[in-house]
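Data availability (excerpt). The following record was deposited with the supplementary files.
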Amino acid sequence: MLVLGQVKNIGLPEIRNYIRSDYKGGTQNWNIDQDKDDNLYFANNEGLFQYDGTVWTKYTLPNKSVIRSVKTDSSGKIYVGGYNEFGYFKPNKNGKLVYFSLSRFLKKKQVNSIDIIWKIHLYNNEIIFQSFEKAYIYNKQTLRLLTPPSRFQFSFLSDNTLYFQDITNGLMVYNKGKITPLKNTTELNNTEVWGIFNLSKTKLLITTLDKGLFIYENQKLVQWNTEANDFIKKNSGLGGYKMKNSYIALNSVLNGIIICNPQGKIIQHINRKKGLQNNTVLASFIDHKNNLWLGLDNGIAFINENSPFTFFGFSYNLSTVYATAVHKENLFVATNQGVFYHSWNSPFKEDNFELIKGTTGQTWNVQIIDNELFCAHNRGAIIINPDKTTKTLDNVGYWSFKKIPNLPNSIIGSNYKGFSLFEKKNNEWKFIKHIDGFNKSVGEFEIDTNNSIWVKKDELIYLMSLDSSAHKFNSIKTFKRLSSTDNGITSIQRINNIVYFQKDNHFYTYSYTDKTFQKDNKITNVFRKIPQTNTIQEDRYGNIWYVTNESLGVLLKKSNHSYSNRIAPFLNLTEDLVYNNLSINTLNPNNIFIGLTDGLAHYDSKLSNDFNQLPKVFIRNFSSPSGTYTIVNNKDDFDITIPYKSNYVKFRFSTPTYENIENIKYSFKLEGFDEYWSDWNQGTIKEYTNLREGEYTMRVKTKNGFGIVSKEATLSFTISPPWYRHFFAYIFYLLLIGATIRIIRDRVKIKIRKNKYYETIEQRRLYLEKEARIRKEQYKLEKEIEKLKNDKLQIKILAKDKELVTNSLQVVKKNKILNGIIHKLKDINTNSFDEESKFQFEKLRKSILKEVNSDKSWKDLEKHIKNVHFDFLKRLKEKHPTISPRELDLSTYLLMNMSTKEIAEIMNISIGGVELARYRLRKKLDLTKKENLIGYLMSI
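Predicted structure:
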């Protein structure tokens, strides 16, 4: 098959669609451009969209109009044109894109007549904005107008020549502020020209909306009668883009996009059937890596043209592929649905693969043996004839076939029940028999020069020796290990026509002489720096293909029989390989087929794709609570200082790598915080919280889908300390400490002086307190002495009272006796006495009566008692207002500790009366039985 430059005519390149919900914008995308940092810009119905490989960002015009044109320049400006508005975006001091209107130079009336700006051109230091009514030429802060002879259609810049289409004058050339018509181009007046490309210095290719393609050369306009012209006529043209390899991408309204060569032959055709989400292509663009971007009527598409890989998938009727073979000018593909074929010499642009009848179902292999195509099928061993008919040799499911070295007309096939023998008789292959002695299902196997079959099965190595007729196995041996250090086995493979046994990339051969496995250091050293493999296969050119847990790789054999390892191109295929069924078919260096779970990959190892090119990585966004910085156009020279209260920071980074984006990974390190680089991961955002004050540098690197690591992107910033840890704060602290020390020193001196003063005062106070205490103690002592005197006096008084009471009682007794004598004297009859006797008797009676009447001791006693116990009687009366005078007297007598008898005598009542009076007094005083009456009275 042909590979023309970087555009392949076999299979489809990788296609990635971006739907509206991905970029959150309008359906139609009218123009595409790319800046120097590889960011892409799309002119969309809802504004300008920037894509940095990770995030879509939307920018709108002040009047919120559609944007139909976009163009970037080397200074970082992004020029845009919309409805009645045009100007440019450029980053402000924080890196955010800000819009600057150029239509402001026009008068208001002129602004309202701008209409839509369809094209923008950077031409000879001029920025030209073209609408249907006029062209607006901006240069050195001035804006001038270019008026068409009648009305402009579109304009095109090709090979530094600017062309305008006028609806009545045909094509016109702009030069030094003027436009001049191209001769013989008025034929285009009745159609719309959508693209002009230079096929050579003197030959222009003109694409129209509905009249097809034209060639303008030597002032003549002729139809370009080619395959591409027929396509555009049929499907309507919407311009295109000239690729860097002289091929041209042509957009269509109805059927996607085609890529044709300079002779007009279609090399590729990509439409909705082949994977596009929409068949109307409004714009096409080749990015800096020669990949194709499409602005669609509904969405955006990326086509990986700069890749040595193309694919046959669902659009070609292929599913999981297990094997391929090119036989009799046809490509045959073994899939889980059967065997499919396609003509090898006819283009692959439109036709699908066709299923060979009789092969429907799981097919494990297709192999060419003795110029015949064998098919190992789930339903048996099948031969596919040149006329696409089939012949079944055996009905048991088969895995693969191999020729027996010493039996040229015999082949052996591995199947679900072991092995079977086939022989060629009369130029026709026939099933002979099942080989006796082994009946386990076997997939891949190898036959050595001794006609011994080697099989890996259930972690064991089987050595099975055929008899001379290959009808049975003479012996079967099993091995559990290859050596004392390598237990088990990983794979069996044939390299350089020698059967090798491999475990953990250690390779062994078998010695029939020693009956042992012997390590082969040469092949082992070839795999020394390769991760552990699980499948190894040698192609017809001696290249060794291998599969690891990480990827597919190949050791390319050099002319000196050494090998060079190539792994980068295949990293994006790793997850799509058919596990344990590696299918590599190397027809030649330009045509290598690799079976995948969702189709077939075609690899051209000669295509120039610099997989080792370093990817770019950018820190796109830095934000904190105090503000956000957007880094665009590689402007990363910000002087960023954030306050301590905003020490929560977030970074967003990206790489403008649009190939194999699923395997892009990042690693980062915040210098000043992180000690080590992070593990590789797909995250594009990193946050840090509670950072201390200081200087930090964020370092980011990326690893693309081919395992190539970029240079570091860096962004430095400073976190100011909190006010209490600021430099000036520390100066203040030093001054404060010095002032404090001075103040403390002065205060200490003052304190010492005060302490001496206070010490003197204290001594004086202590002296006075001591003197006062002595005086107080002296006074207290005097009081105690006085109290003792009073107590002694009271005791004396009580004693005197007692004595007085006793004396009073004696007087009472005397008076009683005297009263008794008086009463007895009354009973004496004095009539018998003489006068002298009567006189003496009367004198005696009057003397006794006088003594009795003149004795006032009792009244004096009562008065004395009341005076002595006045306070007691007063307190008792206040506490018990209802107490009677006689009860007061009783209380006084009880307080004086007089006996009942004495009280009875002094109160002139009986002893029982005294007890009754005591009882009544207790009730009056509300005393309980347990309370002592005298004790209560003494407490008062």
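Summary of structural features: The chain is about 20% helix and 40% strand.
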